[in-house]
Design a protein that fits this description.
31% helix, 18 helices, alpha/beta, six-stranded parallel beta sheet, 656 residues, single chain
Length: 656
């Protein structure tokens, strides 16, 4: 009972402290706890290391690309050139792999070689030159004598806006020697004296020919009157032939003096004194002739060729501005453009130039293969001359300020007692004074002026041209040589059969497209062949000139010319005097006598020579060889029509 009572008492006192034994020895940690702590410490150190590495890696990954970009920008700046085009600065890259500067902002090289009339300040026509500059800038107080590079670009001609004393760096490239000279030409006023620095930084490419090598196919004579050099493509056989060649050369120089280097059209006063009047001829002289398209020639219907302002059907797979244009469609094409010329006037008294829209070439074509009398062939020719004779505007200057566009060769309008072919339009006395624009001129008539054959390309804007330039300048060309044509077995003097034999004997170097079998009926086939070739053989056909020459040029294919009458004695307003800048000349007599193998000769041309010629063709010649759309609006470029009209107005101003 006593024990039970004590137990109850103890329960009633729960806060009573019980004695506790305390040891002075430090408590021992268990192994498990120590392991956990060490792992935690190790984990913390690894986390710290990872954080440091992560931060370092991120900084490196961010900085390395920035460093690379920075170094690339430094390299780009050190190898780039800036060219000013109006108010636009073009950044252009040059390197050993790029034969020509490539302009990032322009997409193409903006004619950096020759700034005349292009991306420079306005250049006055009163630029004076020395004889050694004649292949660079060919201008003078009285006009242009020759062909300045890049005349397809619009340049200002107002001498009041030209900057006197401004220097222009001009690079001359001698494709026969491979040597490049940089010359400096200064813009001067009429009273200034020429300042000229030549042969600066002369550079000789390592794969080029020696500088003293001369083209064996060309002779260079000195003009006894002026002392200037003249290209001679063959030696005269006798005195009469020598006299004829001198006459050809004389007329070429006269025509080159009429060449207009640019235009300031579109600006206030740009058409002052340049009115263009278009005669409203009866429709029988033009539109009615197109209506006979189904019966023009026995083997073809021409109606499809006269669609789309005579451009023909659209060729969609070649891109913008490509049509199936016939080579004889020049007359309606030109007519459409003249009607929309900015300087057109409707008052005869305000006109400087009178355009006669007579489709004489189509008139001749419809009778070529029909058995009709000569009187029938000449009906319209006689009537149009009679109609003009009743006009006071014609009689005022005896037709000297009038122009005809005839879309065939000159000989088709010069029928005489020896030949029954064609009409006698250009043999009429009344037709001696007017200017005649033809696809092939009579070299002994100074008023016969050759202009390019119509090609398949008719751009509408500057951008259309630039897109095509980019497309062909970078095209890989798998064939060294090509020839699109057919043999002429009925003409023993032709070299076509020899060229075909040489081409087909070297299939690895030369491709042959046989036009006799219809291989050339599709424009796409011809253009693709030329785009894929370095050189395009252009022997004479039924006449010295060939439409194919212009098809090859606008495709970036270097034409190989065998007869100077095919191009060099023809297109004074659209092709430069120095043929070496855009073509290769091989004397047809050497080919005929088999003294030269064309394939081997072309294989000897260096890569640098080919690239230089192609660059010149694409960037400087091409725009001026095509006829733009009938609604074309060009600001940067001048097409074949623009160059022709500008030069016509210059000719009239100097001769009437």
């Amino acid at each position: 009972l006593q024990k039970l009572t004590q137990k109850i008492e103890s329960k009633k006192q729960p806060n009573k402290k019980m004695p506790v034994s305390v040891s002075k020895r430090r408590p021992r940690t268990s192994k498990k706890t120590e392991t956990e702590k060490s792992e935690k410490t190790l984990k913390d150190s690894r986390t710290c290391c990872n954080n440091i590495c992560s931060i370092f890696s991120r900084s490196i990954l961010y900085r390395v690309p920035l460093t690379i970009i920075f170094l690339f920008l430094i390299y780009l700046w050190s190898t780039s050139t800036t060219a000013i085009s109006g108010h636009v600065v073009h950044i252009c890259i040059s390197s050993r792999k790029l034969n020509d500067r490539y302009c990032l902002t322009a997409g193409t090289q903006p004619a950096l070689r020759v700034p005349v009339n292009n991306f420079t300040k306005p250049v006055s026509e009163d630029v004076v030159r020395r004889k050694e500059e004649k292949n660079v800038v060919v201008l003078g107080k009285d006009g242009d004598k020759g062909f300045a590079k890049n005349e397809t670009f619009v340049g200002e001609r107002d001498s009041d806006k030209s900057t006197v004393g401004t220097s222009l760096n001009v690079i001359k490239n001698d494709t026969s020697t491979g040597e490049i000279f940089r010359e400096r030409v200064f813009v001067l006023d009429q009273d200034s004296k020429p300042i000229h620095e030549e042969n600066l930084d002369s550079v000789l490419d390592q794969d080029s020919k020696p500088t003293n090598e001369i083209d064996p196919d060309v002779f260079v004579d000195l003009d006894p009157e002026t002392g200037e050099e003249r290209y001679r493509y063959f030696k005269s056989k006798d005195e009469s032939e020598e006299t004829a060649l001198k006459a050809v050369d004389k007329y070429l120089q006269i025509q080159r003096s009429w060449l207009s280097m640019g235009s300031n059209r579109g600006k206030p006063g740009s058409c002052e004194g340049k009115g263009v009047y278009v005669y409203d001829l009866p429709s029988k002289f033009n539109k009615d002739l197109l209506g006979q398209c189904s019966d023009m020639v026995p083997w073809a219907n021409f109606c499809s060729y006269f669609k789309n302002d005579a451009f023909g059907d659209l060729i969609e797979n070649l891109g913008i501005g490509w049509f199936r244009t016939h080579q004889y469609a020049l007359e309606p094409i030109f007519h459409s453009r003249v009607l929309k010329h900015p300087c057109r006037v409707h008052d005869e008294t305000q006109a400087k130039l009178f355009y006669v829209p007579f489709y004489g070439g189509i008139d001749v074509l419809r009778w070529h293969f029909k058995n009709v009398s000569e009187d029938v062939k000449d009906i319209l020719a006689i009537e149009v001359v009679k109609w003009l004779g009743s006009k006071k505007s014609w009689r005022k200057n005896a037709g000297k300020d009038h122009v005809f566009v005839l879309g065939k060769i000159s000989w088709d309008f010069r029928r005489n007692d020896k030949f029954s072919w064609g009409s006698s339009l250009l043999e009429m006395q009344e037709m001696k004074n007017p200017t005649k624009l033809l696809i092939e001129r009579n070299p002994w008539d100074v008023n016969d002026i050759a202009i390019p054959h119509p090609t398949y390309f008719h751009p509408k804007t500057d951008n259309d041209i630039a897109i095509w330039q980019n497309k062909i300048i970078g095209k890989q060309r798998r064939s060294l040589i090509s020839f699109a044509g057919g043999a002429r077995p009925d003409k023993p003097d032709t070299i076509r059969s020899i060229l075909i034999d040489q081409c087909t004997s070297s299939p690895n170097q030369c491709r042959f497209l046989n036009c006799i079998d219809g291989g050339c009926d599709k424009p796409e086939s011809v253009i693709e062949l030329f785009r894929d070739s370095e050189f395009c053989l252009q022997p004479p056909g039924d006449s010295p000139t060939r439409k194919s020459i212009f098809d090859s040029l606008i495709s970036g294919c270097i034409p190989v010319i065998f007869d100077p009458y095919s191009a060099y004695y023809q297109y004074t307003w659209h092709l430069p005097e120095d043929h070496r800048s855009y073509s290769v000349y091989i004397n047809k007599e050497d080919v005929k006598a088999k003294r030269v193998n064309v394939i081997e000769k072309l294989m000897s041309k260096t890569l640098r020579e080919r690239e230089d010629m192609r660059s010149y063709i694409v960037h400087e010649l091409l725009p001026g060889l095509v006829y733009g759309d009938s609604n074309a609006k060009f600001e940067r470029f001048r097409d074949a029509f623009d160059i022709t009209m500008d030069s016509l107005l210059r000719k009239i101003a100097k001769t009437v």
